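Whiteboard transcription, Tuesday session. T.W. wrote the structure tokens on the left side:
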């Protein structure tokens, strides 16, 4: 599918605008993002308790589109009935993905069996609704890949990708895009920056994970925001020795390819 994309439009494929850090400032945050050229922001749910907040935020701001999922760090408090509630939200018009879902084997005292149960069940829902998935992955790349090979889903994004080149290639083979954001702006992140510089450009999407993963240029202690995405993209342009316009066009096309429900484009 061909997309008619202007040279400086951006899509933030992952930002938590419902986060407490933003208080009641969402209107200002969205306005600043759109003014900076960020015409679409994907807002993932993380637990049953915030699905409605994500929905209401996205109904309020047309530039924001919802995804719904049970994050691995919230599975300890999750109940199997939450999957029924999730199904209801996934059926709503405007839903662009199942997410944020995945596995996190980095946190202390994690329950691997419980995490994998919810991850597998949500992959099944993604397949049922023919939706892409937004993946949270920490120290679980190979296990995630194993499940993706067993339960074929439409496509998705490996959010905040931090795996190896070999793992990146495996995600790409499965039709996934890889999310890059503020982490690659740090000069010491040499392995990540090498990936950003050398992976096929058609496999990369941009994200902020706002309010988290603040870029290197942001004053310490301030929350990340979607308005910083063009500056983050400038880092990618520098690493690849490409004009910012080319990076913007490619990353936007990649995001639209993996999440077609982001149309119509632009606003």
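and on the right, the sequence the group agreed on:
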């Amino acid at each position: 599918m061909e997309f008619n994309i202007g040279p400086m439009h951006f899509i933030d494929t992952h930002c938590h605008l419902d986060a407490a850090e933003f208080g009641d400032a969402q209107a200002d945050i969205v306005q600043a993002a759109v003014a900076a050229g960020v015409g679409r922001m994907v807002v993932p749910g993380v637990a049953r308790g915030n699905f409605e907040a994500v929905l209401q935020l996205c109904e309020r701001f047309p530039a924001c589109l919802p995804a719904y999922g049970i994050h691995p760090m919230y599975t300890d408090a999750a109940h199997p009935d939450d999957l029924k509630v999730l199904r209801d939200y996934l059926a709503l018009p405007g839903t662009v993905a199942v997410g944020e879902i995945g596995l996190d084997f980095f946190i202390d005292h994690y329950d691997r069996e419980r995490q994998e149960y919810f991850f597998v069940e949500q992959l099944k829902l993604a397949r049922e609704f023919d939706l892409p998935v937004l993946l949270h992955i920490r120290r679980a790349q190979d296990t995630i890949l194993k499940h993706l090979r067993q339960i074929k889903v439409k496509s998705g994004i490996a959010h905040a990708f931090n795996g190896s080149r070999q793992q990146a290639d495996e995600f790409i083979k499965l039709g996934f895009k890889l999310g890059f954001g503020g982490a690659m702006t740090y000069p010491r992140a040499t392995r990540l920056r090498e990936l950003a510089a050398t992976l096929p450009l058609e496999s990369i999407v941009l994200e902020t994970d706002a309010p988290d993963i603040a870029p290197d240029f942001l004053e310490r202690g301030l929350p990340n925001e979607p308005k910083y995405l063009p500056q983050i993209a400038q880092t990618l342009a520098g690493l690849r020795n490409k004009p910012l316009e080319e990076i913007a066009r490619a990353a936007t096309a990649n995001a639209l390819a993996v999440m077609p429900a982001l149309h119509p484009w632009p606003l």
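Someone added at the bottom: The first strand starts at residue 10 and ends at 12.
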